[in-house]
Structures are given as structure tokens and as C-alpha cells.
Amino acid sequence: MSDEYEASVAGIWLTGAEAMVVRINRSGRPVYSVSVVYRTPSGVPSAFLAELDAFLPLLPSNSIVVGDLNFDLNPNNETDDPTLVYMKK
Asked: Under a CB-based contact definition with an 8 Å cutoff, are residues 31 and 2 in contact?
């Protein structure tokens, strides 16, 4: 990384998941942030989704969120969990 950039890393705890946010700044101004999320398959989806909904608005608009949420979002598969329906839209 160039000396022109500063980076900070923060670990974030979400119910049934782990997340890390890497923020990149240049001259004290945000350039972008990358969030990585891993949700364990055994976690309760509704609790995780509630916390994720609260977490995402805290990120700057120039953010990238990647990870393994362990949800089957294939529109051809049926799910009995109504909390996942909005994720398929």
C-alpha cells in the first residue's frame, strides 16, 4: 500500500456471524471500505438479518460487502423461512 493511504481494521460481531471492516483513507478522507461477513450455517437467520439490517446503514456509501452468508438464494428453491424472502427480491 502506498504511504498516501491509511488503513484501519475493525472486527464486528453479528449474531451467529463474524465480520471485519477495512477502511481505506487518503489525506484523512474516506476512499472506500470493504466488509467481509461470514455467517455460520447453524445460526438463526432472523437474528442475523436483524443485526445486518442495523449494521449496513452504518457503512459509508462507498462500501463493498462480501462474504459467505450461508443462505440458499436460488429463486427456484423454496424456503420455509419468511425472513429470507426479502433477500430473494
From this structure: no
Strands 63-68 and 29-39, by their bridges, are: parallel
Residue of 20, 32, 83 whose CA lies nearest to 61: 32
CA separation for the pair 64, 73 (Å, rounded):
19
Q: Specify the residue for cell string 472506500.
A: 32
How do the domains of the chain map onto residue ranges? 5-88
Q: Are strands 17-26 and 29-39 parallel, antiparallel or unpaired?
A: antiparallel
Residue-wise pLDDT for 33-79, tens only, equals: 999 999 988 877 888 888 888 888 888 888 999 999 887 666 666 65
